[in-house]
Write a structure and sequence with these properties.
Layout (H helix, E strand, L loop, with lengths): L1 E4 L5 E6 L4 H4 L2 E3 L6 H7 L11 H4 L7 E10 L13 E7 L2 E2 L1 E6 L2 E7 L5 E4 L7 E9 L2 H12 L32 E2 L3 E7 L1 E13 L2 E12 L5 E7 L2 E7 L5 E8 L16 E9 L13 E7 L4 E4 L10 E4 L2 E3 L1 E6 L11 H13 L4 E4 L8 H10 L2 E5 L13 H16 L5 E5 L4 H7 L2 H5 L6 H15 L4 E3 L28 E3 L1 H4 L14 E4 L7 H7 L10 H5 L6 H9 L9 H25 L6 E4 L22 H9 L3 E7 L9 E7 L5 E11 L4 E11 L3 E6 L2 H4 L7 E7 L2 E6 L13 E8 L2 E8 L3 E6 L9 E2 L4 E3 L4 E7 L6 H4 L5 E2 L2 H4 L2
Parallel strand pairs: 23-24, 23-30, 24-25, 25-26, 26-27, 28-29
Antiparallel strand pairs: 1-12, 2-3, 2-4, 4-10, 5-9, 5-12, 6-11, 7-8, 7-10, 13-14, 14-17, 15-16, 15-18, 18-19, 20-21, 21-22, 31-32, 32-35, 33-34, 33-36, 36-37, 38-39, 39-43, 40-42, 40-44, 41-43
Helix pairs in contact: 5-6, 7-10, 15-16
GO molecular function, one term: beta-mannosidase activity
Organism: Agromyces tardus
Keywords: Glycosidase, Hydrolase
Length: 841
């Protein structure tokens, strides 16, 4: 095997479309992997599309046709037989074309493609010529292609200004309610020329299971071959191996390798994420007359893990659960949704994935859901999740739309699904393959039935095609037909196709009426079994915001701010969601802080409530972990990779041991309060729970002590005695419940109605290796102390946020920075923030 990367010497030029004059005649250096936008940006022909209103100014790019071309030298290689003889192969490998492409080699069309989510391997043996070879890839406008395809297939409902559901392209490339409309084009994954002879491992698909104490992997191998040699395929994990001979006409085999006393792969928080190296080789069989002394013709190494996956959907008295069970252990899912980490996903490398997953671990996440309007994520992403024990859930790429089930779309969807399942199925972290995002819900509730007028909408994919593909190619991975969905309650019936898919009593649900219509305390009105989406918006970090928006003055509704707010009536919803808790600030720094604080509080309210309901509720997946550009959104990490306060809120709410105060009955305020002691560890948690009512001045008003015991992976609930729960001064009192240093707080009044003063404190600064430490000591009650360090150093980060301090208590904030911030800088009002500042004038 000789692989020649085709990454050098590319140029980009316009073929047709409404480009400005300075672009029409330009021929610029191009990158592969890359995209038109990033190549034009690198050439200085456009401004950064992420800044100000450049999105609209650059909309012409998606309406143009483009050409990528390069040349490469080639000479026949006797060792591979690639001179045109039948004993050698030469293949053009295109790992990702975005999206409607015509590929020519030396003037001959070798491929015409219409799917960003597939790879292509083209036989070019007869087209290569000695010396220089010319490769061209022409991309037609995806906007025009989608418009044309929507007419050919017939209208299907969707949620965008482009019919993204008619074309197999990353849906959010056409914009979303958090995303920029780029309508990209380009070779977004690598290209190469591969030359080989004899045999090549065309596919290696391990299915790892457990039999007692043994790990068992069935290694499905497909071999491409150029001759009739007798071959031998070998699969090995350390000293444990299996091999099989392939006759001259055989191209497939299944090898079983058994590993005794196998170490299981566990998700983080439950055990070791044990991985094994699988080595698969194909070579001419030693019994063959022409066996050579050389090594294998081809070799593939993969890391695999052994675990079992089940979903407990056994009906109970409360409805139908949706509980993930790994290696026989029920797992409470603490998750976040994932979108492409850049609107130009070719820019996301392994190091960037690692930084994002560092933040996921910081936030206490054990699962990431790859949302269906993005991409089938890269090997880097999945390998890093495997290593860290982070569970993954991959949607099939159909989101918020009806999809035609006729050709040519059906064939493209089946082909991409088969490739994705075969590629990703080996990863032990992958526990869910999900048919779609919100399409079952949309068909049921969004008036699609009228608009479809009898047309197909995707049900055949979700209930027939996809489950069949998963059963064939990755039976060790769980499958769900959609998110949200209601599991079947009838034995032998795999999916419930009649009930409402977003019923909180059954299966998974998405909660969006809170952000869109209701205040966040109403999360407690819902008793879900599993929540796959819920979220609250806030602006990005200050440094991110001011880098991307240059409005003067900068206001919540200045022109650039509105460009970077994609949600329908997003600012109205931000305001409506804030006012029950805080007055609306008229100063921009205060507005920014208030919205970030409210986002963190909203999600804390939801996550702690869901966790208090376990095992009735067995998971929540917040929308969303990350952003793809600088924007006001639901993300915990903004488009410049900076953490919002929400990331710190998630860390606290996802702690393995949590004490949270909740209403005994949210529908009946007179029912009092309870303390939920949440123990997500493998050991019991027993001790004396102190429940105290305190004044804002720190004085003890009432107290009780209760012995509590929470078994491993369980919740213990204690009623708060009425003498403690009944406040005599709602505006000036709080409830504190603590066990072994873990505490939960409950305030009887909203911020705006409370007796908070402006916040008095002292502070001292110490130099530390890699940064500084700021110690803050409260002289009066300080709520939600947060250090917005990016306002002092855009590259700085801090280890904690949203810390509430009673008088006399201290907290140390560790700041990582290469700068030398002063005490005055770090304690400036715009940097050291508290909720007090938003209440007391």
């Amino acid at each position: 095997m000789i692989r020649t990367p085709l990454a050098e010497g590319w140029t980009l030029s316009l073929l047709d479309g409404p480009a400005p004059e300075h672009v029409r005649t330009a021929r610029v250096a191009a990158t592969v992997p890359g995209s038109v936008h990033t190549d034009l940006l690198a050439a200085g022909l456009i401004d950064d599309p992420y800044l100000d209103d450049n999105e609209a100014l650059l909309a012409w790019i998606g309406r143009c046709d483009w050409r990528y071309e390069t040349g490469f030298e080639w000479a026949p290689r006797v060792s591979t037989g690639s001179t045109g003889s039948p004993h050698g192969a030469a293949e053009l490998v295109l790992e990702g074309l975005d999206t409607v492409a015509t590929v020519r080699l030396n003037g001959e069309v070798v491929a015409e493609t219409r799917n960003m989510h597939r790879s292509y391997r083209v036989d070019v043996r007869g087209l290569l010529r000695e010396g220089r070879n010319e490769l061209q890839v022409d991309f037609a406008s995806a906007i025009r292609a989608a418009d044309a395809a929507s007419l050919e297939l017939g209208y299907r409902p969707h949620v965008n200004h482009h019919p993204y559901n008619a074309l197999r392209k990353m849906a959010c490339s056409f914009g979303w309610d958090w995303g920029i409309d780029t309508s990209t084009a380009g070779l977004w994954r690598p290209a190469a020329l591969e030359e080989w002879s004899g045999a090549r491992l065309a596919a290696v698909r391990p299915i790892a299971t457990i039999d007692g104490e043994e790990g068992v992997v069935a290694v499905h191998v497909d071999v491409a071959r150029t001759d009739g040699e007798r071959l031998r395929v070998t699969a090995a994990i350390g000293e444990h191996a299996a091999s099989v001979a392939l006759g001259p006409d055989e191209t497939a085999a299944v090898l079983e390798v058994r590993v005794p006393d196998v170490r299981r792969w566990w998700p983080r928080g439950y055990g070791e994420a044990a991985l094994y190296d699988l080595d698969v080789r194909v070579a001419v069989d030693s019994d063959s007359p022409s066996a050579r002394a050389a090594g294998p013709a081809d070799r593939v190494t993969q890391r695999i893990g052994f675990r079992t996956i089940e979903f407990d959907t056994t009906p109970d008295a409360a409805g139908t659960p949706f509980t993930l069970v790994v290696n026989g252990e029920p797992v409470f899912v603490k998750g976040a949704n994932w979108i492409p980490d850049d609107a130009f996903p070719h820019r996301v490398d392994r190091a960037r994935y690692a930084r994002r997953l560092d933040q996921a671990e910081f936030a206490g996440l054990n699962l990431i859901r790859v949302w269906g309007g993005g991409i089938y994520e890269s090997a880097d992403f999945y390998e890093l999740c495997d290593e860290r024990g982070i569970l993954t859930w991959q949607d099939f790429l159909l989101a918020c739309a009806a999809y035609a089930e006729e050709e040519p779309l059906r064939g493209e969807i089946e082909a991409e699904a088969r490739e994705a399942v075969a590629r990703l199925g080996r990863h032990p972290s992958l526990v869910v393959l999900n048919g779609n995002n919100e399409n079952l819900w949309g068909h049921q509730e969004w008036n699609w039935k009228l608009r479809l007028d009898g047309a197909t909408w995707g049900a055949g994919y979700y209930h027939e095609l996809f489950p069949a593909i998963v059963a064939e190619l990755a039976p060790h991975v769980g499958y769900t037909p959609g998110s949200p969905f209601t599991p079947s309650r009838e034995p032998g019936v795999p999916f419930d196709t009649e009930s409402h898919p977003n019923d909180p009593a059954h299966g998974s649900m998405h909660i969006w009426d809170l952000w869109n219509q209701k205040d966040h305390p109403h999360y407690r009105d819902v008793r879900p079994r599993f929540v796959a989406e819920f979220g609250w918006q806030a602006p990005p970090a200050w440094a991110t915001l001011t880098r991307s928006v240059s409005d003067a003055p900068l206001t919540p509704e200045s022109p650039g701010m509105l460009v970077h707010q994609k949600a329908m009536e997003g600012n109205v919803k931000l305001t409506d969601g804030l006012l029950p808790h805080l007055r609306l600030p008229n100063e921009m720094h205060d507005w920014h802080w208030a919205m970030q604080l409210n986002q963190a509080n909203a999600i804390t309210t939801a996550v702690e409530w869901f966790r208090s309901l376990a095992p009735h509720c067995m998971g929540s997946i917040v929308w969303q972990l990350n952003d793809c550009w600088p924007v006001t959104s639901w993300a915990a990490v903004d488009g410049d990779e900076r953490a919002k306060p929400l990331l710190h809120a998630l860390r606290a709410a996802h702690a393995d041991r949590l004490v949270t105060v909740q209403p005994a009955d949210p529908a009946d305020p007179s029912a009092g309060l309870v303390v939920a002691v949440v123990n997500d560890t493998a050991e019991p948690w027993t001790g004396s729970l102190a429940i105290e009512r305190l004044g804002f001045d720190g004085d003890l008003r009432a107290a009780e002590s209760v012995v509590v015991s929470a078994a491993a992976r369980s919740v213990a609930t204690v009623a708060v005695p009425s003498a403690v729960a009944e406040t005599t001064d709602a505006a000036g009192e709080l409830l504190r419940a603590g066990l072994d240093g873990v505490r939960g707080l409950w305030f009887f009044a909203e911020y705006r109605d409370s007796a908070l003063d402006a916040g008095r404190f002292s502070a001292e600064l110490q130099q530390r290796a890699g940064g500084v430490a700021l110690r803050v000591t409260a002289e009066s009650l300080l709520r939600d102390v947060t250090l917005l360090v990016d306002k002092v150093d855009a590259a700085a980060s801090v280890d904690r946020a949203l810390v509430t301090l009673l008088p006399g208590e201290s907290a140390v904030f560790e700041v990582t920075t290469d700068a030398a911030p002063t005490l005055e800088q770090l304690t400036a009002r715009e940097v050291l923030r508290t909720a007090n500042q938003l209440v007391a004038s």
